[in-house]
Amino acid sequence: MSSLQGELQPSAPEKLVLRGVGKGFPTQEGTVRALDRIDLQVAEGEFVVIVGPSGCGKSTLLSLVAGLDRADEGEILADGVPVTGPGRDRMIMFQEAALFPWRDALGNVEFGLELKPGLDRRARAEVAAFFLRLVGLERFRHSWVHELSGGMKQRVALARSLAANPRVLLMDEPFAALDAMTREQLYGDLERIWSERRKTILFVTHNVREAVCLADRVLLMTPHPGRVQEGFPIDLPRPRDINSPELAARAGAITRALRTALEPATRDGMP
Amino acid sequence: MRRRVLARLVFVSALVALWQAAWTAGLWSEVLLPPPGRVALWLGRSLADGTLAGATLVTLRRLVLGYAAGLALGLPLGMLTTRFRPFHETVGLLLLGVQSLPSVCWVPLAMLWFGQTETAMLFVVLMGTVGSIALAMDQGIRSVPPIYVRAARTMGSKGLHTWLRVIVPASLPLVLSGMKQGWAFAWRSLMAAEIFVTILTGLGLGHLLHYGRELHAMDQVIGVILVIVLVGVSFDRLIFAPAERALHRRWGTGRIE
Known about the structure:
CATH topology of the domain at 2-89 and 170-180 and 200-269 in chain A: Rossmann fold
Distance between the termini of chain B: 20 Å
Number of helices of chain B: 10
Order of helices and strands of chain A: HEEEHEEEHHHEHEHEEH
CATH class of chain B: Mainly Alpha
CATH superfamily of chain B: MetI-like
Mean pLDDT of chain B: 92
Mean pLDDT of chain A: 89
Radius of gyration of chain A: 19 Å
Structural class of chain A: alpha/beta
Distance between the termini of chain A: 50 Å
CATH topology of chain B: MetI-like fold
CATH architecture of chain B: Orthogonal Bundle
Number of strands of chain B: 0
Oligomer: heterodimer
C-alpha cells in the first residue's frame, strides 16, 4: 500500500511527517493534553527549530518522533514509514548528555556502534575516534565522563548520536544547561556538522535567539494544549552570528509573535 | 605511602603498649587478660604446627562457598524483583524478612534440619547473605537514571542487551556496596555457626574460638579474634577496595574534599 502511494506521489516524500498527532498524560486532575492535532513536515536536510515555553509539549513531541513514546492519535512517518519504536535513523539528544559513567568518552561513542552488525572492534574504535575528532575531542578519548565539562559532555553525546549515522537528529534543548560562550561554540559546530554531513535536524528550545541562529524554519509552539502555531522561514546567510543585529531583529519579531500566541492561553488560565 | 605505613605501625604499637601496660598494672586477673607476648606465642605455635592455617582454610572454604551461593541466588532474585511487580510484592517482602533476621537465628534450625554437617554451615551463611545481596541488587537497579535506558534504546539497545550493557553496569556502585555488606553478613553468620555447631568435617576459626573458651585459654581466644579481624580486613583490602577504587575513578566519586 505504502509502496503504491510512493509510486503515485508527485515529489520526493518529506523526511518527517506528523499528521494529527495527539498525546495526553493522566494526572490527578484528569488527562492533560500535552499535544493536540500536531501537523508538521520536515524536508530532507532541513533544520527546523520549535520554540515554545516550558511545558508546551516540545519534549513530548520529540520523544514521539524518536519512538520512545507512543502517540494517542495521528501518525508519524519517517521516510514515509510509520514510526513504531526507536530507530537508528532517528537519534535523540537530551538536555542532559546521558553519557554512561562506566565508559570513557570513546567507549560512549562506541556504544551505538556495538549494535551495528559487521563492525569489528578495530573498525568500531576507528569510527568512534573519527566522530570524536569531528566534535574536537580526540584528545579526550580516554577521559571519564566526570572529567569532562558540560559542553564537552554534550559534544561526546553529539558524537555518540552521529556515530550511529542517523539521517535525522532530534535535539531536546541540548544546550540549555550550558554557559553562553560554550553554547555559541556549539552552535558553530552543529551548523558545520549539519551542512557537512547533510543531516535533517528537528531541534526544540525555549531560546528564540538560539532558534533563529540555527534554523531554516522556526515554528512556534503554545501550551494547554500543545499546538504548533506558525512558521517563520529564516533566510539569513550562514554561518550566522548570534550577536548580529539582523538576527536580533528576527528574534524580536518571533518573540512578539510568541507573546501574542501565548496571550489567549494566559487569559484562559486566569480565574 | 611510607608515611601512611609508618603512621599505622605507630598506632598499632601504641595499642599493644597500652595492652601491655594494663597487664603490668595487674588490674585484671591473668586468666582474663594475658599479656601480648603470650598471645603472640600462641599465634606462633599454632602457626608452626599448622592448626591456624588449617582452621583458616576450612573457614575460608565455607565462607567462599556460602558467599558464592548467596551471590548466585541473590543477584538474580534482585533482578527478578525489579522486573516483575508481583514478584517484588511477594518474594521481595520475604527477602526483607530474611535480611532483617539476625543470621545466628538460623543456627538452631540448620542444626535440626541438616545435623552437624557442612550443609548446615553453608545454609546459615547463605541465609545470612542472600537477603542483603538481593535487596542491594534491587535497589541498585531502581536507582539507575531512566535517561540511560532511553539513550540506549535510541541507539538500538533493547531487552537483554539493555540489561547487561546498561542497567547492570549503571547499578554497580550500589550493588558493590551491597555485595560488601553481604560479605560482612556471611562472615558474621559463619562465625556464629562455627561457634555453636561442632562438626567433624573440619575445625574452623570459630571452633578454635569456642574451644579456647572451654579451656579458659584466653591467649587462644584473643589470638583467634586477631586472625578473624585480619582475614576480614584482608578481604576488604584485596577484593573490595580495588573494585571500589575502579568505580570511584569512573564515576568521579569517593573524594570528600
